[in-house]
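hiii so um. not sure if this is the right channel but i have a protein structure encoded as tokens and i wanna go backwards to a sequence. like what aa goes where. can anyone help
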């Protein structure tokens, strides 16, 4: 048993030096754990205004690292690789962002500013993301536009 553990430690040491230690990407909704292989690659999210004109673009990497949130749920950290603001209303792409998956829904947002949430929420498949861009706070919900996205090839 000891030689097996020593061998496993050596393999991890040799093979794991250049790898990230992020937690695996999983969906914990409905009491089940579902792997999300589509989120293992960077995605580009395009933000549209109410007239469906492009107003921003984010390239993000989803991690399995826990993220603080004023909202309930199992929020995970997002790393923004690139953000371009192209119009108004501007998405806070330079702020700390997090995400949560629930069934076939992905929500991305600024969750560390309590009662000042800015969200992208929609349907997620292995090849696309499509939904709404909105704010949520003490005054209720206000739709600002739409979002669409796809994994980078």
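sure thing!! here u go:
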């Amino acid at each position: 048993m000891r030689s097996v553990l020593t061998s496993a430690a050596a393999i991890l040491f040799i093979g794991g030096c250049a790898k990230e230690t992020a937690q695996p990407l999983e969906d914990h909704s409905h009491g089940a754990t579902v792997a999300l292989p589509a989120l293992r690659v960077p995605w580009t999210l395009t933000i549209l205004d109410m007239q469906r004109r492009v107003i921003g673009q984010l390239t993000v990497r989803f991690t399995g690292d826990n993220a603080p949130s004023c909202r309930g749920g199992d929020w995970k950290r997002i790393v923004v690789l690139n953000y371009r603001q192209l119009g108004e209303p501007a998405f806070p792409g330079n702020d700390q962002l997090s995400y949560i998956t629930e069934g076939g829904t992905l929500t991305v947002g600024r969750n560390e500013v309590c009662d000042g949430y800015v969200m992208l929420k929609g349907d997620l498949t292995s090849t696309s993301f499509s939904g709404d861009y909105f704010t949520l706070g003490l005054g209720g919900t206000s739709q600002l536009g739409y979002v669409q996205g796809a994994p980078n090839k």
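oh and Residues 1-25, 27-35 have pLDDT under 50 and may be disordered.
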